[in-house]
Amino acid sequence: MIIVPEREIADLMTREAAFEAVENVFAAMAAEQAYNFPVVREAIGHVEALYGFKGGFDRAGMTLGLKAGGYWPNNLETQGIINHQSTVFLFDPDTGRVSAMVGGNLLTALRTAAASSVSIKHLARDDAKVMGMIGAGHQATFQLRAALEQRAFEKVIGWNLHPEMLGNLEKVADEAGVPFEAVELDGMTEADVIISITSSFDEILTTGHVSPGTHLACMGTDTAGKQEVAPALLSKSKVFTDEVAQSISIGEAQHAIAAGLIRGEDITQIGAVINGAHPGRSSDEDVTLFDGTGVGLQDLAVAASVVDLAVKSGVAIEVDV
Ligand code: NAD
User: Fold this and answer.
1) Across-strand partners of 217?
2) How confident is the model at residue 77 (pLDDT cuts 50, 70, 90)?
3) Residue 213: per-residue pLDDT
């Protein structure tokens, strides 16, 4: 078995490799070459932790495994380590032998940013100039950094419930050489692409905040009850997702479905656009919305990619199990 410790991931994994891994696995899912297993997530009744597994099998990439981990809300305060903790385990699909154990914390941020970037590549207008951000926490910086590579953006605008955090976005925009401006929600009408990545349980963006032709990537809603946009925005948009089953149960679409505004059949897997089976955006006036719920196969794809990079660069640790 190969071990790639968390401390090695930053030097090994690139945004380009994460993008390629996630784009390929989304395509494999739509081609029914890859599927996710039912997610297990449990409050274990100890230190308020939420623990679970996300797994799957990708026949195209020959990747089998799971990500185990979750959320320990007191970690930072009591242990000085981050609250989200995860590890990916890969298995040989031919024999069932464990093949790798990979630190999953940084990979989670990279694969989540890659997902919205894949949606921007395939669904945003080619001439998109203004990048809008809703949210300014840990994930938001990864999201923005990756998104800015997808189009020739000339400006970043940002809104956050806690405005004191907007400096996190400004720093990333500065590094990319793109000016940053904090705006009120009404100012989001200027954006050609909007990413939302918050822990919100109430709608933030409504139809009046989004101009025709915008591409929205809703990335924060990954649990029943969470919400970032008004259900009416989904009925006015062309809706895409990583996985329809998750989109309607734990993703942004859960609310529009519950309100009877859209049906599961109205939601398209982004992989179908990648594969050329669905045209995606059909006009410069369409609002496209990607409901990024986060699937286990994304984690396995980036973990497999980083294992290859670790072996090539000689930092993989090999152990007998
Ligand atoms: P974080 O704690 O670093 O940042 C949270 C962000 O949400 C901040 O911008 C904060 O100001 C904002 N926020 C907090 N409470 C809010 C509220 N009630 N209303 C509106 N905004 C609020 O968290 P993070 O690590 O950046 O994660 C952000 C979200 O992304 C979480 O909901 C997390 O579950 C989700 N997430 C999704 C995926 C995926 O694959 N889709 C992957 C990882 C994380």
Assistant:
1) 195, 290
2) very high
3) 98
- Distance from residue 217's CA to the centre of ligand 1 (Å): 14
CB 229 within 8 A of CB 258: no
By C-alpha distance, which of 279, 297, 282 is closest to 243?
A: 297
In ligand 1, which atom is closest to the CA atom of 202?
A: 19
Give the residue, by CA position, lying nearest to ligand 1 atom 4. Answer: 137
Q: Which atom from ligand 1 is nearest to the alpha carbon of 201? A: 18
**Which residue from 22, 39, 139, 195 has its CB within 8 A of the most atoms of ligand 1, so it is best to mutate?**
139
User: What residue's CA is closest to ligand 1, atom 14?
Assistant: 199
| Pair 290, 215: CB distance under 8 Å | yes
User: How far is the C-alpha of 270 from the C-alpha of 116, rounded, in Å?
Assistant: 10
169-185 pLDDT per residue, tens? 999 999 999 999 999 99
Are the beta carbons of 106 and 227 closer than 8 angstroms?
A: no
The whole-number average pLDDT for the span 264-281 is 98
- CA of residue 321 to ligand 1 center, whole Å: 37
Q: How far apart are CA 204 and CA 196, in angstroms?
A: 9
Is 216 in contact with 288 (CB distance < 8 Å)?
A: yes
- Helix or strand or coil: residue 3? strand
Which residue has the CA at smallest separation from atom 37 of ligand 1?
220
Max intra-chain CA distance, the chain = 58
Secondary structure (H, E, C), 190-234: HCCEEEECCCCEEEEECHHHCCCCCEEEECCCCCCCCEEECHHHH
Residue (of 16, 240, 6, 216) closest to 114 by Cα position: 16
Q: Is 121 known to be catalytic?
A: no
Instruction: State the pTM of this model.
Output: 0.97
Contact indicator for 99, 1 with CB cutoff of 8 Å: yes
